[in-house]
Specification:
six-stranded mixed beta sheet; 50% helix; 322 residues; alpha/beta
Length: 322
Amino acid sequence: MNYHTLSTFRSENAEALEELFTQVLAVMMAEGLVRLRRVAQDGTRVRASAGDRSFRRRKKVEELRAEVRRQIEALRGELEAPARRSLSRRKQAAQRRALEERERRLTRALEELGALEREREGYKKGAKEPSGEPRSSTTDPEARVMRQTGGAYLPGYNVQLATDAESEVVVGVEVSQGRTDFAEAVPMLEQLERRFGRLPEQYVVDTGYTSVENVEELSARGVELYGALPKRKGKPDPYEVRPRDSEAVRQLKERMRTPEGRAIYGVRARVSERVHADLKRWRTLGKIVLRGRTKVRCIVLLNVITYNLLRWFALLAAAGGS
């Protein structure tokens, strides 16, 4: 599959890949290779196909779009003039497509700026959130500046993966624009429930997911959560049960204070980080070469399906199958 083919991906392609992903998992479950008893979720940031300098404020994006529209009108006038009729139809079409595609990206950038502005309006006073005027990329408007592996802040996407801890098979995939993981746990569980008709018995996450809201929501859904809690200033033991803790938070703290709970939590790093490393080192998630969440999702699904098929072969070999 070449770059041109990948660049034409649309939402229907993502749906077809999602269906293939589900079918592979269904067969693996039927063979008893995936049992969904314990699932680990973690996110990894992937580099987007956008440069730092492509991020512009609303005023500049509006100016750029107005200039592109003037160029389109000027091109139409030139092509209609007798002196320009010798220009090849192929070159005419290429010039027009390039300008129209740039106009679409700039329009999309303005839409994303609107979403960012609405998001900023919902920030709580005093919250540690970006305070400057929002900016959007003119090359990949759906990308967001986020912290990458190594600490650098670069344009990217937040790829969320849920992995069956026993088989190390990826069972859930999502591509998010979120800079943090707090909002990613519940949607992933809902995806798993739609795909398998049930939820995992145990769910293992790191501190990025263990907000009070998530802890209580997973408890209400009957999922046993194992996740690290962040250390707070003046509170050296994050697992100390406090009078104001809800029942769900209290139960999580009690589980995480036991050797068994800590051992289960240790599964997350071993499983999730290994999968992330595989997809970035041996597949193509080191840097995404296409733009937009739909195309990025297609690339992620292709990577994950390939990885799962290889895991399938390895599991069959280990079980003595063929």
